[in-house]
Amino acid sequence: MKRVFKKSLEVLAVLAATFGFFSCGEKKSSAKTVKIGILYSTTGNFSLSETPMQNAAKMAIDEINAAGGVKGMQIEPLYVDYGSDPAMAAEKAQQMILKDGVTAIVGTNASNTRLAVIPTIEKYNSVLVYNTYYEGEKPSKNLLYTNTCPNQQVAAFIPWMIKNLGPKIYIVGSDYEFPRKTIAFAKEYIAKFGGQIVGEEYTPTSETDFSSVVNRIKASGADCVFSGVAGNSNVPFYKDYVQYGMDPKKVPLCSISSHESAIKAVGSAAVGNYASFDYFNSLDTPESKLFVEKYQKLFGTTTTVTNSAEGAYHGIYILAKAIENAKSLSAQDIIAAASGVEVDSPGGKIKMDEKNHHCWLNTYIGQVQDDLSYKILAKSDGLVAPIPE
C-alpha cells in the first residue's frame, strides 16, 4: 500500500509540474510574477566561476524588471546555493520545481552537475538554461544552452596553437565529462593539423598539488599545454606551473577553462598564458564596457566578469524573450519560443539556433597581460554555428 501511495504522489507531482498546478493549491506563477530559480554555487570548488554568474543573472533580472518585466509580470528570482555538489543541485532543483513553483531554472556550471540535474528537469517537465562552455551533448528537449560547445571553443584554438606556439602539445584536464570529452574533440584537431601529443593526464576536480604534473610537462619537451583543468583548481595549477620551473612565455598554458576570475586569483603567475572563449571582459566595444562598468558598480571588484557570467546575463535575456513570445508558461511553449531568438549581448548580437537549443556565438583567443586582463589576439569571422554531439 505504501508503495502504491508513493507512486501516486510521484504521478501527481509530474502532473503538477507539467500542467502548472500543485496539490496544495499553489500556482506555478502568480498573476503578477513569474518565478525563476537561480541555481549557482557561491561556495565550494566552483565558487570562483559561479559567483559572477549569479551576480550577472541578478543584474539582468533587475534590468528586465525595471523595463516592465515579461508578459506584464515581474520576474521573481529564487537564489539557491548548492555548494558545488551535483547531488545537492538535483535535490534543490526538484524543490524549486515542486515546492517553490518556478517556471524555469537558470544555472549549474560543471558538467557533472548539469548531468545530475537534467533527469529532474526532464522528469518534471521544466526548463533549464545552462550558461557554461561545455563538452557538447545530444540536446535535451528541456534545455537551452547559452555558451560554447567544443567546435565553437576548440576548432579554431588548436590550429592557432600549432601555428603560433608549436606542434608538440601536452594535455592536462580535470577528471570529469567536460575536460575529457572536449579533449577528445581537441585530439582530433591536433592530428588533423599536424600536432603531436607528448603527454596526457587527468587530475581530480579538488586537486591542489600539481608539482608532479608540472615536472612531467617539463620533461616532455612540449611547446605548449592544452589545459582542461577546471574550477578553483586552476589557481594551484597556474601557481605550481611557475613555482616548479615552467615559463609561460616559453611554454604557455592554453586553457579552455581559465576565465578572468581564476586569472585574478592566480596573480602574476598567469601572465603569458592563453585561453579561448566566446567573450572576454576586455572586449573593446561600448556594450561590453558598459556591462563591465555596471557589474563593478553593483558588485565591486572582488568578483570578476567572465564569459560564463556574460553567458548567464544573456541567458536570462534569452529566457525572458522566450517567455514573452511563448503561448503559455509550459516548458514546451517556452523552448519552442526560444527557437531563433536574437538578443543584443555585451559580446554583440547572438541568436539561439532554430533546432538544437544552442547559441550561435563569436569566439576569441586571448593572452593574459601584466594587468591580468586578456588581450584579444584572434576572433571568429562572425557568429560560429553550434555543432553539439
UniProtKB/TrEMBL annotation:
InterPro entries listed in its UniProt record: AmiC_PBP1, Leu_Ile_Val-bd, Peripla_BP_I
GO biological process: amino acid transport
Transmembrane segments: none
A Pfam short name: Peripla_BP_5
GO molecular function, one term: amide binding
Origin superkingdom: Bacteria
PANTHER family hit by this protein: ALIPHATIC AMIDASE EXPRESSION-REGULATING PROTEIN (PTHR47628:SF1), PTHR47628
Descriptive protein name: Urea transport system substrate-binding protein
Organism: Treponema berlinense
Source taxonomy: Bacteria, Pseudomonadati, Spirochaetota, Spirochaetia, Spirochaetales
